[in-house]
Each structure stands twice: as structure tokens, then as C-alpha cells.
Amino acid sequence: MSEPALHATAPVRLDFAGGWTDVPPFSEREGGVVVNATIGLHTHAELTLGGSDVRLVSEDLGEEVLLPLAAPLPPASGGVALLLAGARRLGIRDGGWTLRTRSDTPPGSGLGSSGAVGVAVAAVLSRARGETLEPEEIARRAWTLEAVEAGMPGGKQDQWAAALGGFLRLEFSDPDVRAERLALDPAFLEVLARRTVLCYTGRSRVSGETIARVMGAYREGDRQVSTALRALAAAAREMAEALRSADLARVGALLSENWRQQCALDPGMRTAEMTRLEAAVASAGVLGGKAAGAGAGGAMFFLARDDPATVAAAARAAGADVFPVTWSQEGVRTW
Question: In this structure, what is the dihedral angle of CA atoms 235, 241, 242, 243, given to the nearest 10 degrees?
């Protein structure tokens, strides 16, 4: 008979500025800066002990792997790579169990859902092992599952956001991460949430090859890529101050500046769907906007100048799905 399930949930994030600068080798050589905030959309992990096998289920991808207890665990690859990575690094060894994950956001949304899934997986497996960890340690474990065990390239902002929650200014000087929680005016946060229109354009096509191409160009001294990455880090520093000052117009302008520099990293950063969406919401009246994540599809978010309902309607007319935005001040949670 199965024991009661253990649960973990972790929020996804909007990256206001600085994404890509948390990725090595830039984060190793020059140090990255990212400003992000978690929202009221979450990833979920459920662990049930019992049975005669190890069962890994990704509900979002519709994929399932069944592993006999006596067999060695395969390498972490495929759609359930993060779950396999968790089983290899943190799995329970004395009996069968089932690990099931799902997300409130579609795969490839650019909202950091894979990092948040990793945080939820690391948290629920660590709890099952009887370990009590600080959020930063859960973030480190989740990054290790994704980047080391599963070999999925990327930075660290998603794991730290999902583990800590709230508005963060993150500094990356590999292997160290410094997290500063931004204390912002509550009235400004209400306005910011009300004016933020979050749109999904279709699954992001950024791949490991894209990341390798961008960072390979940086490594080789490509002037355009290097200049853009430094500008992204500068935009993040300015974004933290704009948020502290409750300067909505400046936040919007920095979103657009960040997106301009991000598009300079790779020709495929802006898709046709994103271009169509940008034109539609610009006509409806926005202060600025950017991709929510690596780019090449996924979600974008915009700050409405006056009427967010008009902007949302324009986004839907352009073919995008619109998600609600509320801020989540709490990070990973287990029970």
C-alpha cells in the first residue's frame, strides 16, 4: 500500500532585465546581473512512496518512464531528463516510488518553468530523504540536476527565483550567486501587476545550440555579442533602481532596451509571431516590453500605458494567449 504523497510547489518568474548574463562563460568572466520576480503560476511535484518500481511522470509532456528497482538508472535525457536527474542524484533507494510533475504554464513558455520544476523536484526528494534545506541549497541542487546531471545548458536565475520567490536582484560570479530581495512599495506593486500584460506566442525555439552559439561568439570576442551582454547587465542594474523608485515609465523603457540588446545576440531571437504581437500591442499603447525568457518564441510581457484590457485584447487578436499576473512573494514550498 502506498504511503501518503509528499508535495512541492515552486513559482515561475518574469525576468525584468539581465537574462543571458547568468550564463557561462559571461557569468564567469565578467559577472552577470538579473532582476526578476516570481508570479502566481507554479510548477508542482508529487512523490508517492511504495510499489515495486520507480515511475517518473511528466504530465506536461505526456511522458512516463518506468524503471525496475534492480536495473541501473539510465542517463538523464529526453522529456523526463530533470526527473531522471533527480532520481540519479537524490532518489530513494529502499523501495519503489512515483514522482509526478506538472506546470501551470505551457512547455517552452520562457517563464523559467524547467528551472522551477527542478526546484520542486529537488525539494520533494530532499524532504523524502529527511533533509531540511535552506532555499539557496535547494536552488543549488536544482541547478546541478539540470546543468550537470541532465547536461542542459543555461544560467541560474530560474532556480534562485523559484526557490526564493519575490522580487530579486541576482548577481552571478560563478560559482557564487548573491541574491538581494528588493523591498518595493506595495501600491506600486499593485499598479505594476495591473499594468503587466503577459502573452504566450507559442513554444520557444531557443535550444542548446542557440545558447552555445551565443556564448561561443562571446568566448571568441565577437564585438556585437559582447557589447549586448554588457548592456543587458547594465539594464538589470538600472532596472533594480527603477523598481525601487516606483518609476513605471522607466521600467517600461528598460524592458524595451533589454529586448533590443537581447535581439542583438542572435538573428533568431525575434520570431514572426513576436513581431506581430509587438506591433499589435504598440498600437494599443504600451510603455515597453520584452520576451519573458531566452526568446525565439515563448511568452512576452508588456506594460500598458493606460488600459491593460485594451492591450490584452490586441494581444489576443494577434493570436497570443494572455495569462493573469499576480506577484508571488513565496518561493518553494513543501508539505
Answer: 110
Report d(CA 107, CA 98) in Å as an integer: 21
pLDDT tier for residue 146 given thresholds of 50, 70 and 90: very high
Dihedral sign from CA coordinates of 245, 248, 250, 251: positive
Residues 6+ apart with CB under 8 A from 87: 54, 56, 67, 73, 99
Do 96 and 51 meet the contact criterion of CB atoms below 8 Å apart? yes
pLDDT of residue 3: 66
Over residues 285-317, the pLDDT tens digits come to 999 999 999 999 999 999 999 999 999 999 999
In sequence order, what are the residues at sequence separation of 6 or more whose Cβ sits closer than 8 angstroms to the Cβ of residue 90?
A: 121, 122, 125, 126, 129, 141, 145
CB 136 within 8 A of CB 45: no
- Exposed/middle/buried for 4, CB within 10 Å: 0-12, 13-18, 19+? exposed
